[in-house]
Specification:
Layout (H helix, E strand, L loop, with lengths): L8 H17 L15 H6 L1 H6 L4 E11 L4 E8 L2 E8 H4 L14 E6 L1 E3 L5 E4 L2 E6 L15 H6 L1 H7 L1 H23 L3 E2 L5 E2 L11 E4 L4 E5 L5 H9 L4 E9 L11 E10 L3 H20 L3 E4 L2 E4 L5 E4 H9 L8 H10 L10 H13 L6 E4 L11 E2 L2 E5 L1 E6 L2 E8 L4 H16 L10 H8 L5 E7 L1 H6 L31
Parallel strand pairs: 3-6, 8-12, 16-17
Antiparallel strand pairs: 1-2, 1-4, 2-3, 4-7, 5-6, 9-11, 10-11, 12-13, 13-22, 14-15, 17-20, 18-19, 20-21, 21-22
């Protein structure tokens, strides 16, 4: 057992290495390839009554998280993914094998076998008859009771953060269930799961700054996708598929905030012969399914708002909300007038921002006070380069966003399938890029060509893991297992080696 708590970490590591040498000297492999475990901790606790009655020997394995006592009797907590169980290590039972107990420490992985009994304190315990070292840990674990307090150290040593924080482990179990519920829902509704390219020649499907990398073999620069295959899934609608969805990672070379990350998971679906009204109904049903299946409730407290997913989802008109808030008609205002208004309201903007971006900056000041859930509808065409125009008002689009707790948590629309209109909007976006707007969409001529072959009426929708972060009321970065961090030491520059083409 580790009795040198007053030593520095470096000294403890050296002390444990000496124990490692002693283990090897006993011809014991401190890193065997297999365990004979036949019960998890949860299995034992769930079936303890039967196991005790039948005097069954169980074999459990896991990490030692605490050791109590010394001399001829040691109690320890053994932890695996399913839970924790106490084990009793007695010299008169283990005999000569008890010598191994002196060589194990908190943090080591061990396997024990023996029958169960109930202690005087009422705790189910394994009476260890055999002990096997599975992994000798050289570094001491942080304080089990206080965990890691420094935020950057928590993220950098996330595996320890998860190990010492059962609530964090449960968070990621919930997150897996969150995505599985969405996947199961889409499949239940007849959607086919697809995979589209992560590396693209032309980046599209969203307003965002992409990451750029180089493909050595083809000797071309390519982009990491900024959407979940939006323009590719629409090509699949051209190809004759009616319902598709993709769930995966996408990347945006932008800032990090409570709601934003540079790489994250997203799900997008595309549905032929349906429009944004059909999509809204499906999305509302999906969100309610997620709330009930994953969290067991429709009511949440998130981002300073109380949200009930089971209440009526109202529809909020985009331009009406802006006009009422600022006493203007935003559609009739020029770019110069919008910039003057933003400047007067002390809302930051870039000189290269065009009308759509300026209008959206006004909207973002309003949304923070909306608890939702609600659908934001009737977006101007300037802020929706991929959405179909409304038949009764060509200045607006058949687009919606899901508003929850002061933020957008999902975006969908009736997809634009007029190739001439799409080409014109791409051209407008391209002007914005040339003026310095790095988030404006690229002109994808190949996608326009696909539309020229004909795409049926289609609706699409995308939702990211931001929704999960909102539901657990945590920053999205906290809901990522291993957030990206700057390296502690300076990086060596990567030397690219050109390879001859085959």
């Amino acid at each position: 057992m580790d009795e040198h708590l007053g030593l520095s970490e470096k000294e403890i590591i050296e002390f444990r290495k000496k124990k490692l040498d002693k283990i090897k000297a006993k011809k014991i492999n401190p890193y065997p390839s297999k365990s004979e475990r036949d019960h998890t901790c949860a299995d034992v606790l769930d079936n303890q009554k039967t196991l005790i009655q039948k005097e069954t020997n169980v074999i459990v394995a896991g990490r030692l998280m605490a050791m109590r006592g010394h001399g001829k009797l040691v109690f320890a907590d053994l932890v695996d993914q399913t839970g924790k169980i106490q084990v009793a290590l007695k010299e008169d039972i283990l005999g000569k094998e008890f010598e191994i107990v002196e060589l194990v420490d908190a943090g080591d992985f061990i396997e024990v076998s023996g029958p169960l009994f109930i202690t005087k304190m009422g705790e189910t315990t394994v009476k260890v008859e055999k002990l096997k070292i599975l992994t000798k840990a050289l570094r001491p674990l942080p304080d089990i009771w206080h965990g890691i307090q420094d935020e950057e150290k928590r993220y950098r040593n996330r595996y320890l953060d998860i190990l010492l924080n059962p609530d964090l482990k449960d968070l990621f179990v919930k997150k897996a269930k969150f995505w599985q519920t969405i996947r199961d829902f889409m499949i239940e509704k007849g959607f086919l799961e697809v995979e589209t390219p992560v590396l693209e020649n032309t980046c599209g499907g969203a307003d965002a700054n992409p990451f750029v990398t180089h493909h050595d073999y083809l000797d071309i620069d390519v982009y990491l996708r900024i959407s979940m295959g939006e323009l590719w899934q629409k090509r699949l609608m051209v190809a004759g598929f009616d319902k598709t969805f993709e769930l995966g990672r996408q990347f945006r070379n932008e800032g990090v905030s409570r709601e934003h990350l540079q790489d994250y998971s997203q799900m997008e679906f595309y549905w032929a012969y349906a429009n944004y009204n059909d999509s809204m109904a499906l999305v509302e049903e999906m969100f309610k399914r997620v709330a009930k299946n994953v969290f067991g409730t429709y009511k949440f407290s998130m981002n300073g708002h109380d949200v009930d997913f089971d209440q009526k989802w109202e529809k909020i008109d985009y331009t009406t909300a802006i006009n009422e808030a600022y006493k203007i008609d935003v559609l009739k205002m020029s770019e110069a007038d919008l910039k003057k208004l933003l400047k007067g309201k002390k809302i930051d903007f870039r000189t290269s921002d065009r009308k759509g971006r300026l209008i959206d900056l006004l909207w973002k000041q309003i949304r923070r006070d909306i608890a939702g859930p609600a659908f934001l509808v009737n977006h101007p065409v300037e802020v929706s380069p991929l959405a179909k125009r409304k038949e009764d008002n060509h200045g607006l689009t058949e687009r919606y966003q899901v508003l929850i707790a002061g933020s957008e948590n999902g975006n969908g629309y009736s997809e634009l399938n007029d190739p001439i209109d799409q080409a014109e909007r791409f051209a407008e976006q391209n002007k914005m890029r040339e003026a310095g707007d790095i988030e404006a969409q690229m002109h994808d001529q190949e996608f326009v060509e696909a539309l020229e072959y004909g795409m049926p009426p289609t609706t699409g929708f995308g939702v990211s893991e931001r929704l999960f972060a909102f539901m657990v009321d945590k920053p999205v970065r906290e809901c990522v297992m291993f957030p990206l961090l700057k390296p502690e030491k300076p990086q060596n520059k990567v030397k690219r080696v050109r390879k001859n083409k085959l």
